[in-house]
Design a protein that fits this description.
392 residues, alpha+beta, 4-stranded antiparallel β-sheet, 9 helices, 31% helix, 22% strand
Length: 392
């Protein structure tokens, strides 16, 4: 999402605090990556929005840092431009058939991590999954990059002028009502900004994030809407008179789809009360961000500022030994998923799932959460030593 979908803000990296001052919530990779992004100039300092701290970043800079990390990781075989076609048992291993441009390859593994966002691996293996009713699924978004934006055009006053112009355009019929779901944010680079448009179901249908016809229709409608919106604003906002769409995302920003059922299902009550678990491997610090309708976002904050913990059992897929999930498709209810799906939390659960899979592959047995945490601490210590300007 942070590269292919141009999602340009990390949420969930920091503790929820009333007082200002961003404090990282999770050790390990969820602390290492922000430091690397800032050191590379791919991210600025954290920004305070109400009670929340976020980290703005640039997707192209994020991709460059990710490339560097992948290239520097020993024994990592990267397969871009590839897709898993089939997964099944092969003796004591999992056999995965992948394809790139019609060329097929089989990879065997003793453990798997499903970080697809859609629990695609789990579903292919016949594991237990769930999908919320289409009427309440968190709505997706299109994020595109704008060029030709004059300095100051999207400062606070400028954004108010843009919002007023859009509302007027909808009222006069020059813009569709869907344009009201658009927000603008400077990218941090000269002349560039990002436009985010929350989307509802495609015309004449319901929203299904797993249906290719629905996704195709949504993407076509979203690009047409963004094109019309930018054209409309060029003639009405002086600072956008030369604006143009500089880049489309590779894919829509999907917030919720299919989720795996794990050994424990994280619930809304866990997030609201700051639940603690004996097998905790990460902290969830973002409020439940409900986007069940386009342009109608609701935040449900926890009862205290104590972060909720995420247990290893929510990453371990029920009935599929050696298969783990990470990111937005881990085992959680619809409401709880609205908190844990953000990128900062995904970094923490992704690292934990990767370590759990590695330990499982090494030992051939179920792993304990304390082993995962201990391994993360060792990895984090090595990463700190490797970071520019690292201190003991």
């Amino acid at each position: 999402m942070g590269t292919a979908s141009l999602v340009h803000t990390f949420c969930g990296l920091y503790l929820l605090r009333s007082e200002p001052g961003a404090v990282l919530a999770n050790p390990g990779f969820a602390s290492e990556l922000p430091a690397r992004l800032i050191a590379a100039g791919a991210a600025g300092p954290p920004v305070r929005i109400g009670r929340l701290d976020v980290l703005p970043h640039h997707p192209t800079g994020f991709a460059a840092v990710a490339d560097e990390l992948a290239s520097a990781t020993p024994d990592l075989a990267l397969r871009l431009h590839s897709e898993a076609l089939a997964i099944g048992r092969s003796g004591r291993a999992w056999a995965t058939e992948i394809s790139c441009r019609g060329i097929r390859e089989e990879v065997e593994a003793r453990a798997l991590v499903d970080a697809s966002g859609d629990a695609a691996c789990v579903a292919s293996l016949g594991g237990e999954v769930e999908v919320s009713d289409p009427s309440i699924l968190q709505r997706p978004a299109l994020v595109c990059a704008l060029g030709g934006v004059e300095n100051g055009a999207l400062e606070e006053r400028g954004r108010l002028e843009v919002a007023h112009a859009i509302a007027t355009g909808v009222r006069t019929g020059d813009l569709s009502r869907a344009a009201l779901a658009a927000t603008f944010r400077r990218s941090g680079r000269p002349g560039e900004a990002f436009v985010t448009i929350d989307l509802d179901a495609p015309r004449g249908g319901s929203y299904d994030p797993l249906d290719p016809e629905c996704l195709t229709a949504l993407e076509l409608e979203a690009r047409a809407l963004a094109t019309a919106l930018v054209g409309f604003l060029r003639g009405r906002i002086a600072g956008l008179s030369r604006a143009f769409i500089a880049a489309w995302p590779t894919r829509l920003g999907i917030r919720e789809s299919r989720r795996a059922l794990g050994e424990y299902r994280l619930e809304a009550a866990d997030l609201l009360t700051g639940a603690a678990f004996p097998d905790a491997i990460a902290r969830a610090t973002w409020p439940m961000e409900m986007r069940e309708r386009a342009a109608r976002m609701r935040l449900r904050f926890p009862e205290t500022e104590r972060p909720a913990e995420i247990p290893l059992r929510s990453l371990a897929v029920r009935g599929l030994a050696g298969v783990f999930v990470a990111g937005r498709c881990l085992s959680a209810s619809h409401e709880a998923q609205a908190s844990i799906r953000v990128m900062g939390t995904c970094l923490a659960t992704g690292e934990a799932a990767g370590i759990a899979a590695a330990l499982t592959a090494e030992s051939g047995a179920a792993v304990r959460a304390d082993s995962v945490v201990a391994a993360r601490e060792r990895i984090a210590a090595r990463a700190r030593d490797a970071l520019p300007g690292a201190r003991p």
